[in-house]
Specification:
Elements (H helix, E strand, L loop, with lengths): L6 E4 L5 E4 L13 E18 L15 E15 L8 E3 L20 H7 L4 E5 L11 H7 L11 E2 L3 H7 L20 H5 L5 E2 L3 H16 L5 E6 L2 H11 L4 E7 L11 H7 L4 E5 L4 H16 L4 E5 L18 H17 L23 E2 H8 L1
Parallel strand pairs: 5-6, 5-9, 9-10, 10-11, 11-12
Antiparallel strand pairs: 1-2, 2-3, 3-4, 4-6, 7-8, 12-13
Helix pairs in contact: 5-6, 6-7, 8-10
Length: 379
C-alpha cells in the first residue's frame, strides 16, 4: 500500500510501539518510537454562567443556557519508553497557532514533539486559552449577535493571512518570492496555511493564559518542567516561570516578541534570574537580536543565566520565524539540547542520563553569547 497511515501496535511489556510512517510529502519512514504512555489533559479555567450559548436562536431547546468551562488549556503528552530526562518539555505555540505547529511539519517531516521524545524527553503540546482544542469563550460574541451586549464586547481577534505569514515570518521579502536560502519548506506553504487560526488578543488574555499554564505545571507529575515558547508565547512563558520557579528548570525561548522583555515586571525578572534561559533567533531579525541582548544584559546584571543564540552568527543562515517547522529543525533541536546539557542538567547531577554509546552527542553552540559565561569572565 502506497503511503500507508501511521500504525500503532502493542509491544508486550514495553508500552506502545508507534511507527511514524509518512504522509504524501514525507520522507522515508522513521524508526519505530517506543511509547511508555500518551494521552491528553485539560488544566485551569473557570466555570461561567452563559446565557447565550447559541448565537442564532436564544430559545433553541437543544442549547440550554448554563455552566461552561472557559479559560483553560489543553495539552497532549507523550512519554518515551527510553526516557533519559526527568523534566518534560512543554511546547507552547505563538499567536495564530496551536500545538499542531510542533507536530508533523508542512512538508511531512517529524516535528519537535516526536523528535525531542526520540531524544528521551517527555513532551507536551499545549493549546493556550481560547485557542484550538482549549476551546473558546463565545458567550460575549453571541450576546452581541443577539443584541444583548454592546459591540465593544466582541474580543479583539486576528488571524495570519498567507501574505502576512510569508513576509512577517521572514520566508521572503514579498509574498510569493522566497529568500534564496530560506529554511522554510516553501513547496509546502499551502499545507502550512491551514494550520493558522484565530487568536484573541485582548490584554486580559495574558493573565488567563498564565493562570491556566501554571495550573498545567501543577498538574504534571514530574520533579520539574522545561518551558518552550515561541513568539508571543515568550511573554507567557516568562511570566509563568516566575510563578513557579521551583518547578521550571529552564526556558527554551524561540524568537520571543521584541516587546516581551519590557512587559515583564521588575520583580518577576528577579525571580527569573534563578532560571536558565536560552533565546534562539533566526536570520534577518535585527530587532529581535537587539531586544534579546538588551534583556540578557539586564538579567546578567542581577545574576541571571541567559544565552542568546543568534543562528547566523554561528554560520546557520536562512531561518525565519517558524524555526520548529523549517528544514533544519533537527539541527536547531540539537542546539537546544546542547544548551540544556550545559545549563540545566550538568548543574544538577540527579537530572539527565547520558546518551547510548552509539549515539553522537549534540553539537556545541559556538559564537552564542551566554550570560553565565559572561558573568564568569567578569568575575
Amino acid at each position: 500500500m502506497k503511503n500507508p497511515p501511521s500504525l500503532i501496535r502493542t509491544a508486550i511489556g514495553s508500552g506502545l510501539l508507534l511507527s511514524f510512517l509518512t504522509g504524501p510529502l514525507g520522507p522515508a519512514a522513521a524508526e519505530p518510537l517506543n511509547i511508555a504512555k500518551m494521552g491528553s489533559m485539560e488544566a485551569g479555567g473557570n466555570v461561567i454562567d452563559c446565557q447565550t450559548v447559541d448565537g442564532g436562536d436564544a430559545n433553541n431547546p437543544r442549547q440550554t443556557p448554563g455552566r461552561l468551562v472557559v479559560n483553560h488549556v489543553y495539552a497532549s503528552y507523550l512519554y518515551p519508553q527510553d526516557q533519559r530526562y526527568p523534566y518534560p518539555i512543554l511546547f507552547n505555540p505563538g499567536g495564530g497557532h496551536t500545538a499542531r505547529f510542533y507536530d508533523t511539519t508542512p512538508d511531512g517531516r517529524e516535528g519537535w514533539l516526536t523528535l525531542f521524545a526520540r531524544a528521551g524527553f517527555p513532551t507536551y503540546g499545549v493549546d493556550r486559552v481560547n485557542t484550538g482544542r482549549s476551546g473558546s469563550d463565545i458567550c460575549k460574541l453571541n450576546a452581541v449577535r443577539l443584541g444583548r451586549a454592546p459591540i465593544t464586547d466582541i474580543p479583539i481577534a486576528n488571524r495570519y493571512s498567507a501574505e502576512a505569514s510569508w513576509v512577517s515570518f521572514r520566508w521572503g521579502p514579498k509574498f510569493g518570492t522566497p529568500y534564496v536560502n530560506t529554511q522554510f519548506p516553501i513547496e509546502a506553504a499551502d499545507a502550512y496555511y491551514a494550520q493558522t487560526l484565530t487568536t484573541y488578543r485582548d490584554p486580559a488574555e495574558t493573565h488567563k493564559s498564565v493562570a491556566a499554564f501554571v495550573a498545567l505545571i501543577d498538574k504534571i507529575d514530574a520533579p520539574g518542567v522545561i518551558i518552550q515558547s515561541w513568539s508571543s508565547s515568550g511573554l507567557l512563558g516568562y511570566l509563568t516561570a516566575a510563578e513557579r520557579p521551583d518547578k521550571v528548570k529552564g526556558i527554551l525561548a524561540i524568537e520571543s516578541s521584541t516587546t516581551a522583555f519590557d512587559d515583564i515586571p521588575k520583580e518577576k525578572k528577579q525571580i527569573l534570574a534563578k532560571i536558565p534561559i536560552v533565546i534562539m533567533v533566526g536570520d534577518r531579525a535585527p530587532d529581535r537580536n537587539e531586544a534579546s541582548r538588551k534583556f540578557q544584559k539586564e538579567m546578567v546584571a542581577i545574576g541571571g543565566d541567559v544565552t542568546v543564540d543568534i543562528l547566523p552568527e554561528s554560520g546557520i543562515y536562512g531561518n525565519g520565524h517558524t524555526l520548529a517547522a523549517e528544514k533544519n529543525n533537527k539541527q536547531t533541536m540539537h542546539r537546544l539540547m546542547s544548551w540544556m546539557e550545559g545549563h540545566v542538567f550538568n548543574t544538577d547531577k540527579k537530572a539527565g542520563q547520558p546518551p547510548s554509546p552509539d549515539e553522537p552527542p549534540p553539537p556545541i553552540i559556538p559564537n552564542s553569547t551566554s550570560g553565565s559565561s559572561a558573568r564568569r569572565k567578569a568575575n
